[in-house]
Amino acid sequence: MNVRTTSTDALYCQLAEELRSKIIRGVYPCGSKLPSESELIADTGLSRSTVRHALKILVDEGLVAKKRGRGAFVSKTLQSHADETVFSSFTTSMQGGRSEFETRLVDARMADAPSDTASFLRVDPASPVVELVRLRYLDREAFCLETTWLPREFKELLDTDLDRRSLYTALREHFHRVPANGHKTFEVCFARPREAFLLDVERDTALMLVTDFVYDIDGRPLHVSKRVMRTDKTKYTEPIR
Known about the structure:
alpha+beta; 241 residues; Arc Repressor Mutant, subunit A; two-stranded antiparallel ribbon; 6-stranded antiparallel β-sheet; Chorismate lyase; 29% helix; 8 helices
């Protein structure tokens, strides 16, 4: 196992990253047993405390579950872990309902990102990023216009069919990147000409604007998405914990 002793990252972080990558790529499938602590020590030359620290990171992330006396196993709910809670795939969550849901890719290009997006993605504002614009339909009626920005390393997505598959599925399968955490903002906005035309509403109609700032499982900025949604077709329910 390749753990670089010359790296500036802590050794347990390097080991956690190596194991995480193999889990995401399917080298260690859901439910499979990871190498034992002794095997990892022999394979990497790292100390037992370093190996345990790396495994604890994966346990805390929900990727790995430890079973007393049996070892560490890849979580059987890895798929749901990747799509859970507030950063679930919008396509997946909508398809779970009873209504007919469709997505149409309106535009896919390299473009300048808004300043807040460029700052989150840690890119120069003058450096183009991937911009995806998708229109969502519910029972064949447009209800959501979504714009997503990603770093230029995801340029391959410009040639990907995102009408029939979710963005998160494409990110997992082609780039081995999994959304993990971040934050949302909720605002009221008013329909500009393009939004009014695509969503079939009057100009200046009040709309809901939901913005997702999402990191991947390694803590790297993954994407920013802005969804402009018709308020007569949208309702958010948040659990109280």
